[in-house]
């Protein structure tokens, strides 16, 4: 399992649902300003996903992308959704991965016409290489699809504006062809998320779009034929594969925990520590648990929300390993949700948080490692009082 987070954003409910279906037991994460994210791990995967819905348009996409980046400190930001194809060789259901994002609406109006002043963001080299490697492998398409044409993955620029293009003869369509004729697809949010990522130390951002129409006046027909859910299902499948590979490829990533066998000289890589008050931690080995984060030579307490998110992850691992049953898992997750919501109130209701964690400790008391984790988080919360 990886403790790193990848933020995945969508604009439409159908896009959100397609990604959410790929998450195992997602937990609600409520931002203080009301934005709701769901956090969970990909089915059969190690990657932790924070999923959010931004609505239509580059402006709302930029604002909520910035909010998600500040909230989760992700290793990458992915935007997944549908788009209209601008070239005939791209089939409905195919996936377009942006190599560049054109914000094409910028310009200046002069006596001799409108002069374009576009902004362009380019995908990072590393993310682009990983995406191309996944596309070549074809394993992302899954099994059981032999009777249906497998979607192709196309790499190229995507144009992002503020209008839905559904014509090949309109002035808007002529403008796109005249100034952005290498763009493969057109959509309405990519420029916003690209700008937000650019302003955050060049955070890797990848825009993945499933082609649901041809931007040629037939959108109503393709929508009736349900190309939107089909196209976004393909985009979500590619996104899941990309997220897993981005996490695996993360520099200095953590290695899996090992446990010493009886009689061997191998020491477990997992070391659990609890730092309270003004305690200082000198040397750590392996993985660190219990709400402690190592930053350079300093040891600092993780926030209670981060500690609860980590605890939720360990609950899932215990459920998957058969250490707790499904009913216990659901009850424990409900207590974690209560604790998280109490922490997000103003002022924080630490008494309610502590009560929820005590109930949780009772639920998982038979699993010593989990009970220790809960006690550690409980101590962290008590230090806030």
Automatic annotation (TrEMBL):
An MF annotation (GO) of this entry: methylthioadenosine nucleosidase activity
UniProt-listed InterPro entries: Nucleoside_phosphorylase_d (IPR000845), Nucleoside_phosphorylase_sf (IPR035994)
One Pfam family hit: PNP_UDP_1
GO biological process: L-methionine salvage from S-adenosylmethionine; nucleoside metabolic process
Boundaries of every Nucleoside phosphorylase domain copy: 5-242
Annotated TM spans: none
GO cellular component, one term: cytosol
Region (Disordered): 245-267
Protein's name in the database: Purine phosphorylase
Organism the protein comes from: Actinomadura harenae
Organism taxonomic ancestry: Bacteria, Bacillati, Actinomycetota, Actinomycetes, Streptosporangiales
